Request: fold
Amino acid sequence: SCRPAGIQDTIAKQVIADNCVIYMKGTPDQPMCGFSRAAVEVLRAHGAKFTAYDVLQDEELRSGVKGYSKWPTFPQIYLKGELIGGCDILLSLHRDNQLDTLLEDAGALKQEE
Reply:
């Protein structure tokens, strides 16, 4: 990759542009792996407002995110620019009833109409 610094800048901007960001395989409506699907389902079940980036559409983004986070797998979930982790961590936060609080603190819950 000719511009590794460029993609790192892009990712640094993406993770702070929205309160909840997920880098995943596929899209929320068409996830291309079970872990990405599960993560989206958990976020949706909690009423999270999130922005998704499909790493399968962009090899530079895919390798860039791994380098940025030092986390080898997808999906990767960020709150307020901080890496929370992958599907397993999201599920354990969900089971421990901690996810709502995290999402609320990050301002990542959909506002009630």
